[in-house]
């Protein structure tokens, strides 16, 4: 949480130069505590696993968070029971008149399709348009990040020669960005996708800030419009065994996918992989909730 200090205290300028977040008394008086309302559009096929991945990270902060799960009305999930969806999920028509402090748009196994050929693309564009006025900050993950880059900024994706799967080293490009406060200069994160975006194309859009990238895996974390849109091309929310489960699943289906890089000890699929990104996953979600949601959202939406 931020340090609350008098507005005119000389130390304030020093602390801000050191990128330490401070809050003055005037601002503190206007911030009564209330739960944060977070909406999760879960586009992943195994929805219950994704729910656990995200809730683990969202629940590890001092903030009280109310979660709502959103499903698409124009696509029926084949891997999650209708009873589960009926009990725990809502549709956009049921929430579009509400305001949310934060939103998460997950990845989806549709990256090899053109965006316009995804059967729920029109519905998704309506939701992304709605977030501009009804959500304080939206976090987009993997294909969700590519969809946001295409919809908001016209930045397209391209197909990779082979699937990008593994644990890759990333560099922090902007240490003053609040989303990356506390990050090491280099850190590890999982990726699992068949497509990517060109770094050169991102740099043509000054409204999009490239905060972190990998020499092997490409652009990773991006922010736009003061953090109103945040795009992450990888999967910091993954558990240690998730890439192994995906690899086994794809191989059992006869798909010629590469073994995840830098993942299994000694590149032996028979050995249990380690989670080497957990701390940065918790830190990123904590930073997002604190600096981009809690500190920015109004106490009462008009």
Which labels suit this protein?
302 residues; alpha/beta; Rossmann fold; ten-stranded mixed beta sheet; two-stranded parallel ribbon; 10 helices; 31% helix; MetA_family; homoserine O-acetyltransferase activity; acyltransferase; Homoserine O-acetyltransferase
Description:
- This protein has 302 residues and is an alpha/beta fold.
- It has one domain: Class I glutamine amidotransferase (GATase) domain (Rossmann fold, 3-Layer(aba) Sandwich).
- Helices cover 31% and strands 25% of the residues.
- The protein is built from ten helices and twelve strands.
- Strand 1, helix 1 and strand 2 form a beta-alpha-beta unit.
What is the overall pLDDT average?
89
SSE order:
EHEHEHEHEHEHEHEEHEEEHH
Helix content: 25-40%
CATH architecture type: 3-Layer(aba) Sandwich
Question: What distance lies between the first and last C-alpha atoms, to the nearest angstrom?
Answer: 26 Å
Taken together, the total number of domains comes to: 1
Largest sheet: 10 strands, mixed
Helical run tally: 10
Rg of Cα set = 20 Å
- Low-confidence blocks of residues: 1-6
CATH topology label: Rossmann fold
State which percent range the strand residues make up.
25-35%
Coarse morphology: globular
CATH class: Alpha Beta
Which structural category do the helix and sheet elements fall into? alpha/beta
Number of strands: 12
Strand order of the main beta sheet, please? Answer: 5-4-3-6-7-12-11-10-8-9
CATH homologous group name? Class I glutamine amidotransferase (GATase) domain
Site (Important for acyl-CoA specificity): 111
GO cellular component, one term: cytoplasm
Organism: Cytobacillus oceanisediminis
Enzyme class: transferase
